[in-house]
Amino acid sequence: LRSRVATITDTRMTLVSQTIVGVRVMKMSGWEKEFEKRIADIRKMEVKQIHKANGLKALNEALFFSVNILVSIVVFLCYVFFFDGILNTRLVFTIFSLTNILQLELTKHLSFGVMSGAECWVSIRRIQQFFEEPELIEKQVMNTTSSSNLSSIEMDRDIIIRLSNVTCYWDVNRHANSADECMEDTTRSTMALEDVSVDLKVGELICVVGSVGSGKSALLSSIVGELSVSKGSIFRSYDSLAYASQDPWIMNGNIKENILMGKEMDPQYYDQVIKACGLTQDFAQFMHGDETMVGDRGVQCSGGQRARLGLARALYRDADIIVLDDPLSAVDSRVGRLIFYSAIMDLMVKKGKCVVLATHQHQYIGNSRCIFMCNGKIRNIGSFSECVELSDGNLHFVSHNADDSSEGSNGNDEKDSGDLMKKEIAKNINSEDVAKHMDNDASKQNITDNQEETKFNGVVSRATFFRYGRAMGGIGICICLLVLFAITQALMLGNVVAIGRWSELEAEQQKSRTIILVVVGLGGAVILSSLFRSLACFALTIRASKRLHDAMTESVLRAKIVFFDTNPSGRILNRFSADVGSNDDLLPHTLFDFLMCFFLVFGSIITACTAVPAILLAFPPLIWYFMKVRTIFVTTSRELKRFESMARSPIFAMLGESISGIATIRSNGCKK
């Protein structure tokens, strides 16, 4: 049952996570009700399995409560009828004391140990599945500059990467120890690259062109090592690599942290990168400049700003080879020219870096070497004009604007025009121009930078308890549940009294049918009432958990976009996972134990006061002492629980954003 619940919970959390990531699309399309229904349906399946597990827990709780009476009655009946024994008060309460000792160990601790062991086994198996998942083949990513490799492959010194007859699949098994083993699962895999061979050289700009879905991103993924090689080989001879993905990954931090990404600060080079990427005017518009918090997934930045931040991060790595996946698509022509000539050409190509640029902005290609991709294959490697001739109309010559030189100019003319463009752009571009280049998301920048989670202080308000009671079914249902606990405890005390009266009877009367029926009848009533109250308590608490989850889902899905902009996704997921898990697993058991122990203590006090009234004199100091201990314990425990809940949110947030940006993190060498 625990394994089934965990599987359904994973499905629900996956859907919630997808909803949070795509919340803008969901709201623009008006799909809130549809997603709410999907989540509610999965939650209903989850609750169904939880009800089955709680039925077993309720049976165990009923057994724990009534086993003392049940075992005692059986022992006394056997003693009287089969061994012709005579009951007395001393014998009865001695048996009660011994069964009380066994009661806690056999019916509570033993069952709890079995349940915990089963849950532990399920958790271990699920963790083991993660450990056994296919892993990235590290030797395909590491630099192969050893003498053995150099002697086995004849290569030009300028070549830093050579792909030889490389074939890749999108979903091939990635934990194979060799390329041959990778071929085992390719029959059902989707082809990404087929028989690709290309050399990348130092100080060269290589433009990857082709139509949408032709395999440009797949080629870049294989170069950075994120796409495993099923056939062929990749030879690498470089110290460092930087990668800017097509969908820029922005972590939850300030702008400077996103650009530096763990590297030491070099103010001079940092300023060069910022100016080359056209971020100077953007920083001037932010309230705190490059110290501005960009929020979860960079929500405070426009699409163009995120693209330039990703490009600036790749530039600042100062790597030997820079792989850029269409960084010019999210900016307009003016900013695109600034980025191409100031960043790509000046800061990278002219400094001897190897730059691999996938782009649809063909006006910047000029005389650069082109790789024309088509259906996962390299159709041509050569000039752009050759690629156009072989493209069957898929590629076209594109000219610059009127103030730019034409595409067909020679190399010297292109260089001169590039210098003129950079000067013109630096002169003409101002804050007003940059404002036009950015998306109309300026309101995002007014979002408060304070994204700290709020922690409540002090006691839990009564409104919280009343809200939970209404979720269980209303105050009337809660009162009925308390009455059921009181009746069960009263039957328990009545049974103890009846057994005591039985032990006080004469030997001839101890086999009387009347007293036997009273004792057995009360014992049966205790068993049935304890079972009924256990089932009712667990059912009502799960009902409350389901209602609270559904209400939370509705509130979150109907929240304004600013809610998702100011709350990291990990914080929201923490509410739907850990906090809902506490309502499902921890709270029902805790509430039942509290009510059971409360009425047990209350019944014991009444019994003690009835038997020995003088004991009332000791109650005032004892009550004062226990209230003081309770205040200290509850205050400490409550605050620790709040701190624990808050400390879990950043872990969820960081784990989620690390997984979403794993390609950028690994490619830029930032795993540690």
Topology of helices and strands:
Layout: H1 2-21, H2 23-29, H3 32-81, H4 89-131, H5 147-152, E1 159-169, H6 179-182, E2 191-201, E3 205-209, H7 216-224, E4 229-236, E5 241-244, H8 255-260, H9 267-276, H10 280-285, H11 303-316, E6 321-325, H12 333-348, E7 354-358, E8 369-374, E9 377-382, H13 384-390, H14 411-428, H15 431-437, H16 462-472, H17 475-504, H18 513-557, H19 561-566, H20 569-611, H21 619-660, H22 662-667
Parallel strand pairs: 3-7, 3-8, 5-6, 6-7
Antiparallel strand pairs: 1-2, 1-4, 8-9
Helix pairs in contact: 1-3, 1-20, 3-4, 3-18, 9-12, 12-14, 16-18, 17-18, 17-20, 18-20, 20-21
Count of alpha/pi helices: 22
Q: Fraction of residues in helices? A: 55-70%
Q: What structural class do helix, strand and pairing data support?
A: alpha/beta
The averaged pLDDT comes out at 79
Strand content: 5-15%
Lateral arrangement of strands in the main beta sheet: 5-6-7-3-8-9
Largest sheet properties: 6 strands, mixed
Silhouette:
elongated
Uncertain spans, ≥5 residues at pLDDT below 50?
Answer: 141-155, 174-183, 399-450
Terminal Cα span:
38 Å
What Rg, in angstroms, do the CA atoms define?
Answer: 36 Å
Count of DSSP strands: 9
